[in-house]
Amino acid sequence: MTEEVIQEIGDKIVRVLKTIYDPEIPVDIYELGLIYDVFVNEDNDAKILMTLTSPNCPVAETLPVEVEEKVKSLKEINNAEVEITFDPTWTQEMMSEEAKLELGML
Questions:
Q1: I need a labelling partner for 70 at 20 to 30 A (CA). Which of 39, 59, 81, 86 fits?
Q2: Domain tally for the chain?
Q3: How far, in Å, CA of 66 to CA of 83, rounded?
Q4: Residue 27 is part of which domain span?
């Protein structure tokens, strides 16, 4: 795969991630800073490294599944796997300027 194709697939994944919202905060998980990294290998398998706002997050069971399913729905992706990490711990500083503006923090 060329660098351009990889970038295109990455952009599509980001667009899909921006359709998933944290149920407690009216901002998508990408702008919230919950997505730490996205990897796509030569077999078009995606791995998403993400965190939750807290280990006790009410959607700890369902949010990773929703992320996997939505990323897998892209025709370019064969499989998707989500890995949850709490290192580093999520803080409000990880939110994008857009998210902070949306939440009245700027």
A1: 86
A2: 1
A3: 13
A4: 3-88
Residue type, 7: Q
In a domain, 16, yes or no: yes
In angstroms, rounded to a whole number, what is the distance separating the alpha carbons of residues 41 and 45?
6
Helical (H) or strand (E) element with 45:
strand 45-50
Burial of residue 94 (CB within 10 Å: 0-12, 13-18, 19+) is: middle
Q: In 10 A of CB 23, how many CB atoms? A: 10
Is the four-CA dihedral 93, 57, 10, 15 of positive or negative sign?
A: negative
> What's the token pair of residue 70?
């939505």
Kind of pairing, strands 79-84 and 35-40?
unpaired
- The residue type found at 63 is L
Q: How many of the other CB atoms lie within 10 Å of CB of 81?
A: 15
Rounded Cα gap, residues 36 and 63, in angstroms = 15
In a domain, residue 22? The reply is yes
Tens digits of per-residue pLDDT, 14-64? 999 999 998 888 899 999 999 999 999 989 999 999 999 888 888 888 999
